[in-house]
Amino acid sequence: MDVINELTELFRKFPGIGPRQANRFVHFLLERNDDAERLSALAKELPTTAARCSDCRRFFAHEKNVKLCKICRDPARDNKILLIVARDTDLDTIEKSGTYRGKYFVLGGTIPILEKEPQKRAAMRELIARAAALAEKGLSEIVLALSANPEGENTANEAARALASLAKRRGIKISALGRGLSTGSELEYCDPETLKNALANRR
Fold first, then answer.
1. Directed axis angle between helix 88-97 and helix 192-200, to 10°?
2. What's the CA dihedral at 85, 87, 92, 94 to 10 degrees?
3. Which residues, 6 or more positions from 135, have their beta carbon under 8 angstroms from its beta carbon?
4. How do residues 163-193 score in pLDDT, each as one tens digit?
5. Phi/psi of residue 111, each to 5°?
6. Cβ neighbour number for residue 25 with a 10 Å cutoff
7. In whole angstroms, what is the distance from residue 86 CA to residue 74 CA?
8. Positive or negative, the Cα torsion across 132, 176, 159, 87?
9. CATH architecture group of domain 70-200
10. Is 183 buried (19+), middle (13-18) or exposed (0-12) by CB count in 10 A?
11. Per-residue model confidence (pLDDT) at position 18
12. In angstroms, rounded to a whole number, what is the distance separating the alpha carbons of residues 200 and 178?
């Protein structure tokens, strides 16, 4: 496989990118040598300049001797509510909407309905540990903020099962986003008003 086709196939692995768009990316880089070189340099730097927050598991720009992202370091955030999302992009969407001021947890993906090993798709063990730690600080509600599609619903069900014992023992409510988030929609692409309604009407 030549470099053009190999790079096209690489771009196709990106979420939401089809073969035509991947091919356009490659030809854009062929015409823009400076951008191609910058992209290559940044990609090489990424593993050493980004870190995963030890609390919420989102990626953030690495700072020396800092293990928590800015959101988790913010003392004004509400420890009584934990919102669970599938990916960093979902967290970013909710944070930009300005409708939520609690804590987050990023699962790292969704779980397909027929998945035999769900723990390989989402960080359930880490979720339980995070919820248990927050329970010591007064956690009273966990919100399952997953996309309104089959994989999102299956992931929410798996998370609810994983948290059931802790929730019952500590009196923690487990809720989900309510009306406002239409069936089949991806959380990442929701507008602020839709997210506001879905959070306000969680059930």
1. 90
2. -20
3. 166, 170, 172
4. 999 999 999 999 998 755 555 567 777 777 7
5. -110, 115
6. 18
7. 22
8. negative
9. 3-Layer(aba) Sandwich (3.40)
10. exposed
11. 92
12. 7
For residue 71, name the pLDDT band (cuts at 50, 70, 90).
very high
Whether residue 108 contacts residue 122, with contact meaning beta carbons closer than 8 Å, is answered with yes
Domain residue ranges in the chain: 3-51, 70-200
Give the end-to-end CA distance of the chain in Å, rounded to a whole number.
51
Q: How far is CA 80 from CA 40, 53, 92, 150, in A?
A: 42, 19, 20, 29
Task: Please check whether the domain covering 3-51 is classified as CATH 3.80.10.
Answer: no
CA 64 to chain centre: 24
Taking the C-alpha atoms of residue 161 and residue 26, their distance in angstroms, rounded to an integer, is 44
Does position 53 have pLDDT exceeding 60, yes or no? yes
